[in-house]
Amino acid sequence: MNIKTIGVEEWLNVWEKSATTDIAQSTISSLTMGEILELDGEQGATFYDRLDREKMNYGWIEGSPDFKRQVASLYKSDIDPDRILQTNGATGANLNALMALVEPGDHVIAEYPTYAPLYEIPRTLGADVSYWHLREDLGWNPDIDELKRLVRPNTKLICINNASNPIGTVLSPETLAQVAEIAKSVGAYVLSDEVYLPLEDTDDYVSMADVYEKSVVTNSISKTYSVPGARIGWTVSDKALADKIRTYRDYTMICGGVFNDSLATYVLENRASILERNRAIVLGNRAIAQEWIDSQPRVSWVAPKGVSTSYIKLDLPMDDETFCKDLLAGRGVLLVPGSRFDLPCGARLGYCAQPDVLRRGLDLLGEALGELDG
User: Fold this and answer.
1) Quick one: pLDDT at residue 163?
2) In order of start, what are the domains of the chain with their CATH numbers?
3) Please, which residues bridge with residue 220 across strands?
4) pTM attached to this predicted model
């Protein structure tokens, strides 16, 4: 197998440990273990009571019944636990779902630009991949008419990232219904990576799992729930696809581990407190970033709609990767160049760091941009 590197991951693998001010990440400020244990109001007693009863064997291979119950409660429709499979983060969820679905010669349509595995894995598996473009002239929304033109009788799969990484585009319920209708016309599946839950206008957000019977939804506790350290995600699909994914899970992970399962279950049980905390971070930090952007002649964005990832356009006299390397070397500030997402002349701004980190990073970024005019 000859697969391309994931641009953003390669960048972070090389540079993130060099940063003193990290405003590149897409997780809402990660919780400490101390903060996690405070969620139940009993200093973590409910977590430790569960954990103390567990043997440190392989545990529930597909995820414990309690975990599956919590995942099912995230959706409006009635989800049979047999359709839910625990994975190694959303990364593992996407990998296993795509391996189960895509075969050489299939036609796959992928939202673009977004997180590279959603189109690079299908291409590596031998699919003919077409891009459904997020368009800046439409406020970084896609054109549904383009999707209608792209679909073919042999289209096997449509991949979407809702909300998108790094742009933050949230597809409306009306758009999702149209995607489902188009997919259904040719019998295609829809893979919807939903790790970024919008934390405003939540009544307007729907999961593809509640829209289309031939969907496979991937998610995790890493981004919206601020616990990437647990490495727990999941797939929700129909029974036939779940049975295929089971085989690939055996090759790629076996299980998520007893400790991680218990932690993920506890996090989802206490998600209301996490979401309240994270909503304050998202909305407060977006206001900080917006005020800063309004003061910067070389910076613009389409403000993210309550999600933790964003893309800023930069007016630069050099390529964005050179600028980001210089910013890191000179001021210790980490961004991800937009070119790592096929979005040149910009950067992913992880604006959901702690507010003091965001302010410091933006101040230093502003200094670097100001020197370009010096």
Assistant:
1) 95
2) 7-26+272-369 (3.90.1150.10), 56-269 (3.40.640.10)
3) 233
4) 0.96
